[in-house]
Design a protein that fits this description.
By secondary structure, the protein is α+β, with helices and mostly antiparallel strands. Helices cover about 20% and strands about 40% of the residues. The chain has a single domain, classed as Nuclear Transport Factor 2, Chain: A, CATH 3.10.450.50. It is built from three helices and six strands. The longest helix is centred in the N-terminal third of the chain and has 13 residues.
Length: about 140
């Protein structure tokens, strides 16, 4: 679940600067406010999310379902940090870290993320989003 409190400087190849830090802050704000349609609007219509230990989901409806399932499993709040962002023309990439907490504030997960962004009709949107937990897998004995 992507995150954001501390944002690093954004490096860009060429003259076009994306708004990745601002979109990460919006992602976090909308998710934490339970405005999942606001989160989904940050993705391209054919966008894909690749969560850990789950199948990838593509398209806004599938992304909405995956976000709702995360909320239902107790991922109440997320904190996102952007550590790098680069772009060239209408494409860009970004990396960062995330932390997820339950409604009671207890720690649920933390890890890192990476995305590909695309400028569509003058607006930067996330096209591919993958995140990986840094927590150990549960003992499977």
């Amino acid at each position: 679940m992507i995150l954001g409190a501390t944002f690093a400087a954004v490096a860009v190849w060429g003259g076009e600067k994306s708004d990745l830090a601002e979109r990460a802050a919006t992602w976090e704000k909308e998710y934490n406010a339970d405005n999942l349609p606001g989160v989904v609007a940050l993705y391209t219509s054919d966008g894909c999310r690749m969560p850990p230990n789950q199948p990838a989901v593509c398209g806004r409806d599938a992304i909405m379902g995956q976000l709702k399932a995360g909320k239902d499993r107790g991922a109440a709040k997320v904190k996102i940090a952007v550590t790098s962002a680069e772009g060239s023309g209408n494409l860009g990439t970004g990396t960062g870290t995330y932390e997820v907490t339950a409604a009671d504030g207890s720690h649920v997960d933390h890890g890192k993320w990476m995305l590909i962004e695309k400028k569509v009709n003058g607006t930067w949107l996330t096209q591919k989003d993958i995140f990986n937990s840094e927590m150990a897998m549960p003992d499977m004995k």
